[in-house]
Structure formats: C-alpha cells, structure tokens
Design a protein that fits this description.
binds iron/sulfur cluster, about 60 residues, two-stranded antiparallel sheet, Alpha-Beta Plaits, 2 helices, alpha+beta
Length: about 60
C-alpha cells in the first residue's frame, strides 16, 4: 500500500483524481490528504502507480506491509 506524509502534503488534489480505486481523500480534521489502506491495492500491484508521479512534493511513498 501507499501512504502520504502529512508534513509534505500541500492539499493540491492531484493524486486523488488519478486514483482508480478512489482511495485518496482529504482528511476532515488534519491538514493533509490520506490514503485508505483498505482500498489502495498499489494500482493492482503495478510497479508504476498512478498517484506517486502526480505529487509535486513527493509526499506519497510505498509502505512496507
Ligand atoms: S497506489 Fe494506486 S490505488 Fe493506491 S492510492 Fe495510489 S493511485 Fe490509488
Ligand atoms: S498530490 Fe501530493 S501534495 Fe497533492 S494532495 Fe496528493 S499527497 Fe498532497
């Protein structure tokens, strides 16, 4: 799965719109976007996922599961 570093997220919305699983949303109280770990499937386990290259601040990273 992938995760977002809150301190790097600028709320630009670029990642959310490209996610085929609708796994990304804005957190209601924290100043960041979040990835729903139950929905993110690493773009069907592809090595080239959709969200990462869209992020202008490199806030999205692959998490060890
Ligand atoms: S890796 Fe793919 S499925 Fe997971 S949050 Fe990013 S775009 Fe969505
Ligand atoms: S693309 Fe990056 S900076 Fe923009 S909302 Fe997503 S995680 Fe935050």
């Amino acid at each position: 799965m992938h995760l977002i570093k809150p301190d790097l997220c600028t709320l630009c919305d670029a990642c959310r719109v490209v996610c085929p699983r609708n796994a990304i949303s804005v957190h209601q109280t924290e100043n960041t976007y979040i990835i729903n770990e139950d929905e993110c499937n690493d773009c069907n386990n592809m090595s080239a996922v959709r969200c990462v290259p869209q992020c202008p601040t490199d806030a999205i990273f692959k998490a060890n599961t």
